[in-house]
Amino acid sequence: MAQPDDMFGDEDYPAYTMGRAAEIVGVSQDFLRRLGDAKLIDPFRSPGGHRRYSRYQLRLAARAKEMVDEGTALEAACRIIILQDQLDEALRVNETLRRNENSTAD
């Protein structure tokens, strides 16, 4: 777990309760549960079993809310977001590998 000084900059630190997360994103707590059921987000569980959300997870939830508000089915929105994130990660990895190849070729 991150140290107190590091928590504010940690995108993955589970800082938000379910109620606060729902309020921030502008959705119901049930909507957040359904995002978990659809495997978009997997909230951290406190020792008491309460869900805790990170800023990264809140951004994913906000993206899903936007898509659902535009008429996309929840499950489809979650799948699209997951695939977009996988593509973004693959592009980052490829760019890093390309930079490393170029730096060793010099």
From TrEMBL:
Gene3D superfamilies listed in its UniProt record: 1.10.1660.10
Q: Which GO terms describe its biological process?
A: regulation of DNA-templated transcription
Q: InterPro entries, alphabetically? A: DNA-bd_dom_put_sf, MerR-type_HTH_dom
> Which GO molecular function annotations are given, in alphabetical order?
DNA binding
**Pfam families according to UniProt:** MerR_1
The HTH merR-type domain extends over 15-83
Signal peptide boundaries: none
Q: What is this protein called?
A: MerR family transcriptional regulator
